[in-house]
Design goal:
- By secondary structure, the protein is of the alpha/beta class.
- Helices cover 41% and strands 20% of the residues.
- Helix 10 links the parallel strand 10 (264-269) and strand 11 (293-299).
- The protein is elongated, with a radius of gyration of 25 Å.
């Protein structure tokens, strides 16, 4: 870092010796714009009153009067927009939990350090920091109403993107997941988390799912006619399963597209707890009898649960990204991943790991024997026209890796 880029730091710790020690370490590392506070309240007052608020706060957790967890919440209430490093003698699982809380507060977290703090680890943590451009401002996300979503469906503004799913052992591309986007005439490409919930709340999800399914099935037929024999995964909401007529819609649309049910994976995400299991259970069982593949999505989160595995004949279990990315370096996350993998095997289900973000994630899946993977390390969701070219590039990467291993 140049002197002009040097961050302003604030150290918060109620132990006088530890406070002085960390400040001394920072000075040895070349950081001289450092302030120390012995309580959360004093730190908040300094943040509020300073003409140059801190770029990075190093915060202890176990402090009297205001502990570090309460201090995080207060920082958000006081409009803090800088970065945070947790410094504590608490156990690893406690620190990981507080990290999740900090991220939920939308605080930029650089990581955590265990006491006593090694100078090298402190230096490496500070290297993660980068100054925020003054031009960058937090934007308020557009909130879309039911009428806007209804018009998007009627005006053919919804478009499918496709994210590849690959076999971990061989690297072969075996299918894609269809992910809907809204090509908004004013706001550009809008992601599904901005409108799917609206569709579910206002009775529009059946029509939205119909549009996504028709498009995905038609595209799958085009690929198959061109020699790309791919499965297509389509997300369905539990709200789609409230009427037993849904079975006829799915069977009819698949037949009309000329696609076999075995090439269609229906990914079930339960965003809300089922009040009545009878209709969903009948629909999913009948679809399975028709040889559609069923996948339980985001397993381990929300309402995706063991009771669903007990009651519904799923073929596939998708391990949520929160239990995949970085699992190789996080024992707690790896334990949950391993349990999910074993559970799927015991049920005779195929496993799909979501959120594969880097080479380390990929190698971890290979070592542990996961069946399928998807994530940004493999490919981001893409327009249908881009998929054949991407497959050629991916196969070239796989050949290079195989040659290196050999």
């Amino acid at each position: 870092m140049t002197e002009r880029q040097m961050p302003i730091l604030l150290v918060v710790d109620d132990e006088p010796f530890m406070l002085k020690l960390i400040i001394h370490m920072l000075a040895n590392l070349g950081f001289f714009q450092v302030t120390g506070c012995s309580s959360g309240q004093a730190a908040l007052e300094w943040v509020d009153q300073s003409d140059s608020p801190p770029d990075i706060i190093l915060c202890d957790l176990n402090m009297p009067e205001m502990d570090g967890i309460e201090f995080l919440r207060k920082l958000v209430e006081h409009g803090y927009g800088g970065s945070l490093i947790l410094v504590s003698g608490e156990g690893e699982r406690m620190l990981q939990t507080v990290e999740v809380l900090a991220l939920a507060h939308h605080i930029k977290l650089l990581g955590h350090l265990n006491k006593p703090v090694p100078p090298a680890a402190l230096a490496a943590m500070l290297e993660k920091w980068s100054p925020v451009s003054p031009r960058i401002r937090r934007t308020v996300e557009q909130v879309y109403g039911a009428d806007a979503v209804r018009d998007a469906i009627a005006n053919d503004e919804l478009v499918n993107y496709y994210q590849p799913k690959v076999a971990v052992a061989s690297g072969r591309v075996i299918g894609v997941e269809a992910l809907v986007r809204w090509r908004h005439p004013r706001d550009g490409m809008v992601f599904p988390d901005r409108f799917i919930g609206v569709a579910e709340e206002h009775g529009l999800i059946d029509e939205l799912t119909r549009v996504v399914m028709i498009g995905a099935l038609a595209q799958t037929k085009i690929w198959q006619d061109a020699g790309l024999m791919l499965r297509v995964a389509i997300n369905i909401s539990m709200d789609n399963l409230s009427s037993v007529e849904f079975v006829n819609h799915v069977v009819g649309q698949t037949a009309a597209a000329g696609v076999t049910p075995r090439d269609v994976v229906l990914e079930v995400t339960e965003s809300r707890l089922m009040k009545d299991i009878r209709a969903p259970l009948e629909i999913l069982t009948r679809l399975r009898m028709q040889r559609f593949r069923l996948s339980i999505d985001d397993f381990g989160t929300g309402h995706s649960s063991l009771s669903q595995l007990r009651d519904i004949p799923f073929d596939e279990l998708k391990i949520d990204r929160g239990f995949v990315h970085g699992a190789w370096a996080n024992q707690t996350v790896q334990t949950i991943y391993d349990a999910s993998l074993r559970l799927a095997r015991q049920f005779g289900m195929e496993t799909v790991a979501e959120g594969v973000e880097d080479q380390e994630d990929w190698e971890f899946l290979r070592r542990t024997g996961c069946d399928l993977a998807q994530g940004y390390f493999i490919a981001k969701p893409m327009p249908a026209a881009d998929l054949p070219g991407w497959i050629e590039v991916w196969q070239g990467r796989e050949r290079e890796w195989a040659a290196v291993v050999a």
